[in-house]
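pasting for the record
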Amino acid sequence: MSKFNYKVILHIIGILLLFNGGLMLLATLASWLMKDGVTFEMTLSAFMVMIFGGFMMLISRNHEAQIQKREGYLIVTLGWILMTLTGMTPFILTDSIQDLPSVFFETMSGYTATGSTILNDIESLPAGILFWRSMTHWIGGMGIIVLAIAILPLLGIGGMQLFTAEAPGPNSDKLHPRITDTAKRLWLIYVSFTFAETLLLYLAGMTLFDALNHAMSTMASGGFSTKNASLAHWNHLPWVHYIIIVFMFLAGSNFVLSYFAFTGKIKKVFQDDEFLTFAKFIFVFSIIVFAVLVTQVDLTHDSFDHPQVWGKIESSLRHSFFQVLAIVTTTGFVTADYTAWTPFMTIFFFGLMFLGGSAGSTSGGIKVVRHLLMIKSGFLEFKRALHPNAIIQSRYNGKVVSKEIIGNILGFFILYMISFIIGSLVFGLMGLDFENAIGVAASSLGNVGPAIGDFGPASNFSELPALGKYWSSFLMLMGRLELFTVLILFTPFFWKKN
């Protein structure tokens, strides 16, 4: 008997591709409305992907509706790869991006909500393609919320094991309705936030097209923009920045908490250890950046234009909060070149790339909850050294955290740092210098977007060698799917029969 239920894997991936092609039709509609001249190519792309997805569903229609852990890992990883491969179709058919490594990089950067780009002139692209770029973010962001809250806890990974209210038990008949229900609620919140942000950005001075694109990018913690200068294009409109600051914070917070807030359980939000830690991190780091900007940096000598509409103090405060949130939540929007803000700031922002947002958010990175529990465990080790016979346990939200979960978090952190070191070494082999290699590795693995050095906020990733683009894409995928999901496929025991 075969270990894998291949038919169910094919069927679910077929559904994903059908969904992918269906959403591509929205980009086709945008292309038609904007009269950008590529509507036919966009339509053809959508139908090709939908037919492919439908064919996969057809050949696997007599499947057993039972998914084991092994199938779960394969579905998640292969689903993301095939979404990326089919998502490349509009770029190829419209000839928007010339070479294959670049197309793959751009599309993977979209679905993993990284936001790194190889495009030198974004504004010259057809409107339908710009919309599809933002859509890849939005699809990937929505997918990751559902994954983080509904799927990954079942596979025994992901920070959401800690969120006991939403982590279903192993009983399969109890699982299904819970997952479906949870996914629907989160989907509704995600869509509502996207539309609310679109409306507010439109009122703040963006065009409707730009507002919708940036709303999709923000909610997915992505970072693709419709302008070459990213959000720095609107440096003369402070309200645009403030709206995006608020929604970056919401996207970087656990979406389950947003659901609690919507249902009137506000108390639960402010009792959540991770949320409080995340908010404190943002505030403290932003004040540090603000202090440096006010005392040591002249924003007018930046790569971007800084009109300082409401004065230097307000401008410094706004850019501090904006850039800290953009890096910590791994959104990666740019309003200024933080690598030009003193060497201290370059190292500071590089360090923030390893933080990440909350578990159950669209952010990438290590996640605040893991840092929080590692710090707590570290301090408890001091206590245990002084009181070896005492029973001392880590607590999260008032509940005892099992040694298994602490072990999982430490294992994740070790794997993450090893992946970062190997990632940097491989970039070094490709000829990147130290600063560029560690910058691109940290940015790709953390799904951040901008890096440091030659790949900082004021430039892009077009100078990466062809192999470097594939390697960076692999790191993006690993970072986005919480490492274990991808790396377990490379272990021999995963493929062995029990």
